[in-house]
Amino acid sequence: MNAPPAPGQQPTPQQMAAIQQQMTVEAQKRGMTSQQFQLWQRQQLEADAKKAGMTLEQYINQLKQQAFQNHQRQQQQLAQQQAAAAQQQQGGQVQQSQQVPINPGASDPKAIAVAKWLRGQDLKSRT
Predict the structure, then answer these.
(1) Residue of 117, 112, 116 lying closest to 102 (CA atoms)
(2) pLDDT of residue 1
(3) Taking a C-beta distance cutoff of 8 angstroms, is the pair 24, 14 a contact?
(4) Which of 33, 34, 118, 125 has the most CB atoms within 10 Å of its CB?
(5) Would you say 36 and 43 are in contact if contact means Cβ atoms under 8 Å apart?
(6) What is the pTM of this model?
(7) How far apart are CA 67 and CA 79, in angstroms?
(8) What residues contact residue 59 under an 8 Å CB cut-off, 6+ apart?
(9) Helix, strand and coil percent figures for the chain, each rounded to 5
(10) Can you tell me the distance from the alpha carbon of 6 to that of 24, in angstroms, rounded to the nearest whole number?
C-alpha cells in the first residue's frame, strides 16, 4: 500500500485511489455505501468537535496538527534509531532510550487501552 502523503502536501492520484478503496472497504464492513460512510464519518467528527467545544474546522485543524507532530516525532525517532544502528555497526555498543515528550491535554482512550495492553504483555527486548 502507498505511504500516506506528507503533512501539508496533496496526495498523489495513487494515494487518493488507495484512500477511496480503503473507505469503500470500511463502508462495506459496516454495511454502508461509500456515501453513507462519509456522512457517518462527518457526523462523528462534528460530534467530537462539539464535545471539544470547537467548530468542525477548528477540530480538523487540531487533528491535522496532532498528526503532523506525531509524524515529526516518528521521523525523529527513526533518525535516532538509524544513527544508533550505524554506531552499533561500527563496533560501538549503544544503549538506546527514547524519550517522547508528553503533550498536556486529554489522552486518547484508545492509546491508553493499547498502552495498558502492551504493558501486560511479556515482550522480549530487541538486542
Answers:
(1) 112
(2) 46
(3) no
(4) 34
(5) no
(6) 0.53
(7) 18
(8) 45, 48, 49, 52
(9) 65, 0, 35
(10) 23
Half-sphere exposure of 126 (CA within 13 A, CB side): 4
Cβ–Cβ < 8 Å for 19, 11: yes
- CA pseudo-torsion sign 23, 6, 60, 115: positive
Task: Give me the mean pLDDT over the 37-65 stretch.
Answer: 92
Read off the amino acid at residue 125.
S
Instruction: Kindly report, residue by residue over 60-89, the tens digit of the pLDDT.
Output: 899 989 988 998 999 999 888 888 877 777
What's the CA gap between 123 and 117, in Å, rounded?
11
Residue found by looking up cell 493499547 in the block: 114
The mean pLDDT of the chain is 82
| Contact between residue 21 and residue 34 where contact means Cβ atoms under 8 Å apart | no
- DSSP states of 5-67: PPTTSPPPHHHHHHHHHHHHHHHHHTT--HHHHHHHHHHHHHHHHHHTT--HHHHHHHHHHHH
Report how far residue 26's alpha carbon sits from residue 8's, in angstroms, rounded to the nearest whole number.
Answer: 25
CA 40 – CA 106 distance, rounded (Å): 24
**Interatomic CA distance for residues 124 and 127, integer angstroms:** 9
Residues sharing a CB contact under 8 Å with residue 34, sequence separation 6 or more, in sequence order? 20, 23, 24, 27
